[in-house]
Write a structure and sequence with these properties.
The protein is mainly α. It is built from 1 helix and no strands. It is elongated, with a radius of gyration of 14 Å. The two termini are about 25 Å apart. The relative contact order is 0.14. Keywords: ATP-binding, Biotin biosynthesis, Cytoplasm, Ligase, Magnesium, Metal-binding, Nucleotide-binding.
Length: about 55
Amino acid sequence: MLFISATNTNAGKTTCARLLAKYCNACGVRTILLKPIETGVNDAINHSSDAHL
């Protein structure tokens, strides 16, 4: 298991994870990506109440 973290939003965590998974898959390592938490939700966009939890 690998956990990717950063101290700011828009730091490239998702992009880094995607590229790492692509590389691992190319090397024959089966990968599963999971993004359980998203930060930086824009309040100007109408989201469901679940999006703010």
